[in-house]
Design brief:
By secondary structure, the protein is of the alpha+beta class. It has two domains: 2-78, Nucleic acid-binding proteins (OB fold (Dihydrolipoamide Acetyltransferase, E2P), Beta Barrel), CATH 2.40.50; 84-247, Recombination protein O, C-terminal domain (de novo design (two linked rop proteins), Up-down Bundle). Helices cover 38% and strands 24% of the residues. It has seven helices and nine strands. A five-stranded mixed β-barrel has the order 1-2-3-5-4. A four-stranded mixed beta sheet has the order 6-8-7-9. α2 (86-102) runs antiparallel to α3 and α2 packs antiparallel against α7.
Length: 248
């Protein structure tokens, strides 16, 4: 069958001497594995379509199972900047790998597609990549069914702070209930408001957000706790991000 889809390359690997296999996050057909013949050749007209983060239109043949084979493609946005700048490449790789690891092959991906597309566009437009990545993490938690409860204490329903964030409980505890999780993290009022904002925000609505370094550090600590506890996925790209942070 011939498919024609809008897709974003979330994984690319060498196959044989001259070919590549890409995993596309498509707008209409879930994740799709596509063989791009000759993509490793310098003069190949399809080599750019196999580059990580590329957003394009892909036309490919596929039987009832297995890989598709690219017939034709057109680039809509190459995202060259996301590959050429080390920090942007690291954050974009993390978003791509996180998407790949949290979506099943036959899962509908229309909203995932729009969120990843907006994530890459925000990074390309110069918005703070760390903040963009944390918002994207919240979207992944939400789409995976693990969005935290941030409006009221998950134990007693109290809406009056201060609160602590319990990654284990998937939400916040008030001062009366924090004994239920000794590892619950104290959160400032500002970060609590920010997490609540992220909880309901579409990536496509993200404006410019400037945060102090200490606020970004606290936000990162909270999101890491939620991601590690609720999803528990080990990602190579996140390990690289951690190494990059140590060099800054």
């Amino acid at each position: 069958m011939l498919y024609r889809v809008e897709g974003i390359v979330i994984r690319s690997m060498d196959y044989g001497e001259n070919n590549k296999i890409v995993t596309l996050l498509t707008k209409t057909n879930g994740k799709a594995g596509v063989l791009i013949r000759g993509a490793k050749k310098v003069k190949s007209r399809h080599s750019s379509l196999a580059q990580p983060f590329t957003y394009g239109e892909y036309q490919y043949f596929r039987g009832t199972t297995g890989l598709g084979t690219l017939n034709h493609g057109e680039i809509i946005e190459s995202h060259h900047d996301l590959r050429s700048q080390l920090d942007l490449s690291a954050y974009a790789s993390y978003a791509a790998e996180l998407t790949d690891r949290t979506i099943q092959d036959d899962e509908p991906t229309g909203f995932h597609f729009e969120q990843l597309k907006a994530c890459f566009a925000a990074m390309k437009d110069g918005k703070d990549a760390q903040i963009v990545s944390h918002l994207f993490e919240m979207r992944i938690l939400d789409l995976s069914g693990y969005a935290p409860e941030l409006d009221e204490c998950v134990n007693c329903g109290n809406r009056v702070g201060p609160f602590r964030l319990s990654a284990y409980a998937g939400g916040i505890f008030c001062t009366r209930c924090t004994s239920r999780d000794s590892a619950a993290l104290p959160i400032s009022e500002g970060v609590h408001k920010l997490l609540r904002l992220f909880r309901g925000m579409d990536m496509r609505r993200l404006g410019s957000i400037a945060l102090k370094d200490e606020t970004k550090a606290e936000l990162k600590l909270c999101m890491r706790a939620l991601m590690d506890t609720q999803l528990g996925i080990v990602l190579k790209s996140r390990n690289f991000l951690d190494q990059l942070d140590k060099l800054v």
